[in-house]
Automatic annotation (TrEMBL):
CDD domains: C2A_Synaptotagmin-4-11 (cd08388), C2B_Synaptotagmin-4 (cd08404). Residues 90-102 have a biased composition (Pro residues). Keywords: Membrane, Repeat, Transmembrane, Transmembrane helix. This is C2 domain-containing protein. GO terms for molecular function: calcium ion binding; calcium-dependent phospholipid binding; clathrin binding; phosphatidylserine binding; SNARE binding. The chain crosses the membrane at residues 12-35. GO terms for biological process: calcium ion-regulated exocytosis of neurotransmitter; vesicle fusion. GO terms for cellular component: axon; exocytic vesicle; plasma membrane; presynapse. It comes from the Eukaryota. Residues 104-115 have a biased composition (Polar residues). Residues 144-263, 278-414 form the C2 domain. It comes from Leptosia nina. Residues 79-89 have a biased composition (Low complexity).
């Protein structure tokens, strides 16, 4: 019995010894891991940090150049400030001495002053050199609109007339970069063949070199054909601006089969004919219904519209905008009347005026635009008139009559303005 009790006490002793050893190993491993963790954190923060030692941060990294995604050799760098001294650059080989250096300038044998800024980097120097040698086109042409260069060739075996739009020279432009010109061409008097060139960006001397072939033209028909060129400047956000036009009849030209004839014509202003003969008039009838808050507009007709081409014809239509506090809130338009300067529309339109049921015409106006329809390019504005309380002349008088006599149709003529 005593022998068994001694064996039990001996086994318990060894178990306790082994457990204490394992516990010591575990504590040593934990202490080692904590020490390594603290050392790693201290290294990231710039060194060991004692209880009385301030936290030390590394200086900020210097900004590096960013590679451009679209180029493998160029970099995008921030330009140095003009008010601060440029950073020190490595010494470059001396430049050859100029024959007559300006006064105060430094030569290769003269040391640079300490407060003098160092030269720009090579990339910035290349940019400045490019800007200096870039040619600047003149912005004014002394009132001239430039010249149009084109070629004519008639192919007898194909019964085809080939017109080559070569280039334009010395076009006017308001912006320093120049207009975005293109050329529109049509054959008169039929106006059935209409073509246009591509747009050449930001230039006053565009080069096109585009050929247009018109088939089905017999030799005896050449004398009755007139080439009508219109030079325009493309505008992405509004209506294209008309620079000028060239009218070239073929009656006085001797076109031989297969031989090209080079011609140059001065571009003439398009608006001179409108200034001399006016833009015409439009007859409008208005009726104001206060209870329903409706304004009825009847476009009756127009007269004495300007000639939009050398045939003396136009394709007019009217576009209407209802304005409330100066903002367009509704629009309508009539049908196109082909080949006439005195169109008759007789079309009625109804506009809903806001702020019902107490709607008035005090903050409402009506804008009328008469346009010349064109199949190829944007339609050209012949003239416009605005009817409202802020109008002038007949437009203001007509509007007051409509306000004073509700539910009555009142018609009046209005002259179109630019």
């Amino acid at each position: 019995m005593l022998h068994n009790a001694g064996e039990w006490h001996s086994a318990t002793f060894w178990v306790l010894v082994v457990g204490a050893a394992l516990l010591a190993v575990v504590l040593a491993a934990v202490a080692c891991w904590v020490a390594r963790r603290r050392s790693s954190l201290a290294h990231k923060l710039g060194g060991k940090r004692g209880p009385d030692k301030a936290l030390v941060f590394q200086p900020p990294r210097r900004a590096t150049a960013v590679r451009s995604p679209g180029s493998a050799t160029h970099y995008l760098r921030k330009s140095p400030s003009p008010t601060t001294a440029a950073p020190q650059q490595p010494t470059s080989p001396p430049r050859p001495q100029t024959p007559n250096p300006p006064s105060g300038a430094t030569t290769p044998h003269t040391p640079t002053a300490p407060n003098e800024p160092t030269p720009l980097s090579k990339e910035l120097a290349d940019v400045h050199a490019t800007e200096k040698i870039k040619p600047i086109e003149p912005e004014t042409n002394d009132g001239k609109l430039g010249d149009l260069h084109f070629k004519l060739r008639y192919e007898n075996e194909k019964s085809a007339l080939v017109v080559s739009v070569v280039s334009c020279q010395n076009l006017p432009g308001r912006e320093p970069a120049g207009p975005d010109p293109y050329v529109k061409l049509q054959l008169l008097p039929d106006k059935q063949h209409k073509v246009k060139t591509r747009v050449v960006r930001k230039t006053r001397c565009p080069v096109y070199d585009e050929d247009f072939t018109f088939y089905g033209i017999a030799p005896h028909q050449l004398t009755g054909i007139t080439l009508h060129f219109v030079v325009l400047s493309f505008d992405r956000y509004s209506r294209d601006e008309i620079i000028g036009e060239v009218v070239s009849p073929l009656s006085n030209l001797q076109l031989q089969s297969g031989e090209a004839m080079a011609l140059c014509r001065e571009i003439q202003p398009r608006s001179l004919k409108m200034r001399s003969v006016g833009r015409g008039e439009v007859l409008v009838s208005l009726c104001w219904q206060p209870a329903a808050a409706r304004l009825t507009v009847v476009l009756l007709k127009a007269r004495n519209l300007p000639k939009m081409d050398v045939t003396g014809l136009a394709d007019p239509y009217v576009k209407m905008y209802l304005l409330y506090n100066g903002q367009r809130i509704a629009k309508k338009k009539t049908h196109v009347k082909k080949r006439t300067l005195n169109p008759v529309f007789n079309e009625s339109f109804v506009f809903e005026v806001p702020a019902a049921p107490n709607a008035t015409l005090d903050h409402v106006s009506l804008e009328l635009l008469v346009l010349d329809w064109d199949r190829v390019t944007k339609n050209e504005v012949i003239g416009r008139v605005e009817l409202g309380a802020n109008g002038t002349g007949s437009a203001r008088h007509h509007w007051r009559e409509v306000q004073a006599a509700p539910r009555r149709q009142i018609a009046d003529w209005h002259k179109l303005k630019e």
